[in-house]
Amino acid sequence: MDMKPQHDSAISRRDFLATSSGALLASALANREVLAAENATAAKLALDGGEKAVKQVFRSPVRWGAPERERLDALLGQEALFYWKGPQTALLIERFRKICPAKHIMTCSSGTAALHIAVAAAGIGPGDEVITSPITDIGTVIGVIYQQAVPVFADLGADTYNLDLNDVERRITPKTKAIIAVHLAGNPCDMTALKALADRHRLVLIEDCAQAWGTRYRGEPVGTIGHISCFSLQNAKHVTCGDGGIVGSNDERFGPLLQRFGDKGFDRLKSSGLFESFATNYRMSEPQAAVAAAQLERVENIAAQRARLGNSLTRRLEKFPCVLPHGVGAEDRCSYWFYMFRLKQDSVRCDRAEFVKALSAEGVPASAGYIPVPLYRNPIFLNHGFFNGRWPIREFGLTAMDYGNVNCPEAERILQTGIRVTIHEAMTDEYIQSAALGIEKVARHYAA
Ligand SMILES: *Cc1c(COP(=O)(O)O)cnc(C)c1O
Fold this sequence. Notes:
By secondary structure, the protein is α/β, with parallel strands linked by helices. The protein has a domain at about 65-300: Aspartate Aminotransferase, domain 2 (3-Layer(aba) Sandwich). The protein is built from 16 helices and 13 strands. A seven-stranded mixed β-sheet has the order 1-9-8-5-4-2-3, with helices on both faces. Strands 10-11-13-12 form a four-stranded antiparallel β-sheet. A two-stranded antiparallel sheet has the order 6-7. Mean pLDDT is about 90; it is low at about 1-30. Bound molecules: pyridoxal-5'-phosphate.
């Protein structure tokens, strides 16, 4: 099986130089490049008509090919395309177990579906509170709200962008039933501390691994420490089948319920035909499973390459006092769904918009922030209008939540000062080094 990163530059220029006979010449060339690079940071900004720091063309990764075609060919020989007893679904589950060893697994239609199945299986119901991050995809909390439960937003670490343990603890009440830990951008949450906190308060710990394919927490794959873990196969994620999701659990209280909560409440092992649970249809079909099964074989290379590139960017940015690099634990592997550093507003003579404009002019694939506002600042939360303009649990007095009063100051500042840099597996070290150079050049120029 071909496990190489799928990009057409089969061999980078650096690899070529390193493997060619002229190794001495190569190192001389490399030194000259470094010197030229050092000079470049003092040079005129591309924004002001200077030379661009990033000269390589931005190449998008090739995301699918022969392995996916092979699976789809096999699929067309099948008599049925339904998930239950489907060979593609079985293969997807088998391959998923190698990434995230879970006894009970349900494939489903999206990451949002996986999270809804998880909270339903966890027994989250009307008025229950679920603590989670305000900087995430809205899919993290959609299932919570559909279960008539209450998302409670906790603040985040300044550079990890993940849940701040102390703030989570402060927000625990007698109504709290679960925590959803979002491994934002593929950076693992502090799972040991979160698990201890959850156990101490008898809370269900759900992991939102939608952005964390291939992520490791202290050497362990994410999704294995919490009680239930959820993954997304949406098109923008590390691996995809267009849309899809997977939910898994090793906990005997919740694991056996995952299938029915993704399948209209129907327990296919019992097949009595009688409904004992209420749920919607979140099933994933065989064509999606076929593509997803092939995609899972790519996870390790994608995550390893992104981790390498992101960490090398951090090593460069650490030297610059006006930026705060993406904070990743020394024993962890972040699979950088994106890289985000923060601008220290007091240490620069420009605003973020200008800084980003200058970066873009240098050819650095950067953009300001992530989502525009924390989830609780969206109109739907401020209006409490989830169900046709109404929120029954509030009207019935099951919650007094007022999202207009929620404030997570660090999360707000993260979104105001964050600068996102695209990282993907088809990028070369050379490319990332030149992007780092572009950031250094702009940082030097605007340093206060
Ligand atoms: C993408 C995403 C989801 C939702 O996944 P979908 O497949 O788009 O429904 C949930 N949480 C996070 C953190 C995500 O990035």
